[in-house]
Specification:
Distance between the termini: 38 Å
Transmembrane segments: 24-41, 61-86, 92-109, 121-141, 147-169, 194-211, 217-236, 248-269
Structural class: mainly alpha
Order of helices and strands: HHHHHHHHHHHHHH
Strand content: under 5%
Family: Belongs to the UbiA prenyltransferase family.
Shape: flat
Pfam families: UbiA (PF01040)
Signal peptide: 1-17
Radius of gyration: 19 Å
GO biological process, one term: heme biosynthetic process
Length: 277
C-alpha cells in the first residue's frame, strides 16, 4: 500500500496537479497485481526460511493452503496482466519498469542476495524504489531527473526502515540463517548504519528541492520529517540494545507516507523555495 502511494506521488508530481483518472486507476491496479505476484513468488521461493521464522511460519504456502504450483502460476500471471494493462492503457516504459521491479525483487533480492549478503536489502531495495518512477513515467512517458530523485529517495529510505525491523526480528533471522546486518555485524553496527543512511536521506531529499521540480511545501515538510527521522535514529543509537527500534520502524512508515503526501500537496500549491530569498 505504501509503495502504491509513492507511485501516486510520482503521478501527481509529473502532472503538477491531478493526473488523468484512468491512468491513475490503471497504474494502481497494475501495481497491485505486480507487487502481489512478486510477493507470491517470494513466498514460494522462501518457504523454507518462512517455516523457520515465527513471523512467517503461518504463511499460506508454508502451511500448504496454497500449493507451490499455484503460487508460481499466480505470481507469473498477475505480472503478465499488469504488463499488458500498462502497455495497452498507459505506455510501454511504465510496463517495463514495473516488470523490472518484480524481476529484481525475485531474482536479485530473493534468490541471489537474501541468503548470501548483508547488503541484501540495500541492493534489493531498488525493487521497492521503482514505483514512484513508474508513476512519473506513466504521466510523462519519459524517465526524467525528478523520477531518478524519487527512486533514490525510496532507495535510501529502505535500509534504515528495514534494518529497524531486522533489529526487532534478529533472532528470527538468525534461526533461519538469513544474513541480515544485525545477525552478522551486530546491533551496534546496524544502529550506526541506520543513522548514516538517515543523514544521507535527509541530504538527498533536500537536494531534490534544488532541482525546481518541487517547491516550498515539499522543502519544509521534507526537512521537518527528516530531522524527526534523525532524532529517532539518534535515540536508537543512544539506548541499550534494540530499545527504540520499534518507534523508529513505525515512524519510518509514517515518514514515507507524509513525504509523498507533501509531494502531492506541493503539486497543487507549488511555491518556489527561492521566492523566500
Amino acid at each position: 500500500m505504501l509503495l502504491l502511494f509513492t507511485a501516486l506521488g510520482g503521478m501527481f508530481l509529473a502532472a503538477q496537479g491531478t493526473p488523468d483518472v484512468l491512468v491513475m486507476v490503471v497504474v494502481l491496479v497494475a501495481g497491485t497485481l505486480a507487487s502481489a505476484g512478486a510477493n507470491a513468488l517470494n513466498q514460494w521461493f522462501d518457504r523454507d526460511i518462512d517455516e523457520a521464522m515465527s513471523r512467517t511460519r503461518k504463511r499460506p504456502v508454508v502451511v500448504g493452503t496454497i500449493p507451490n504450483s499455484h503460487a508460481i502460476a499466480f505470481g507469473i500471471c498477475t505480472n503478465i496482466v499488469a504488463f499488458v494493462m500498462l502497455t495497452s492503457m498507459v505506455n510501454l516504459l511504465s510496463a517495463v519498469l514495473t516488470l523490472c521491479a518484480t524481476l529484481f525483487y525475485v531474482l536479485v533480492y530473493t534468490m541471489a542476495l537474501k541468503r548470501t549478503s548483508t547488503q541484501n536489502i540495500v541492493i534489493g531495495g531498488a525493487a521497492g524504489a521503482i514505483p514512484p518512477a513508474v508513476g512519473w513515467v506513466a504521466v510523462t512517458g519519459s524517465l526524467d531527473l525528478p523520477a531518478i530523485y524519487l527512486f533514490a529517495i525510496v532507495f535510501f529510505w529502505t535500509p534504515p526502515h528495514f534494518w529497524a525491523l531486522s533489529l526487532l526480528l534478529k533472532d528470527d533471522y538468525a534461526s533461519a540463517k538469513v544474513p541480515m546486518l544485525p545477525v552478522v555485524a551486530g546491533v551496534d553496527v546496524t544502529k550506526k548504519s541506520i543513522l548514516l543512511y538517515t543523514l544521507l536521506m535527509l541530504a538527498l531529499t533536500t537536494m531534490f528541492a534544488l532541482t525546481g521540480a518541487v517547491g516550498s511545501v515539499y522543502l519544509v515538510s521534507s526537512v521537518v520529517l527528516g530531522v524527526l527521522f534523525i532524532y529517532y535514529a539518534w535515540r536508537l543509537m543512544r539506548r541499550p540494545d534494540i530499545e527504540g527500534a520499534k518507534p523508529l520502524y513505525l515512524y519510518s512508515l509514517l515518514y514515507l507516507a507524509l513525504l509523498f503526501l507533501a509531494i502531492i500537496a506541493d503539486s497543487f500549491f507549488k511555491v518556489g523555495w527561492y521566492s523566500w530569498i
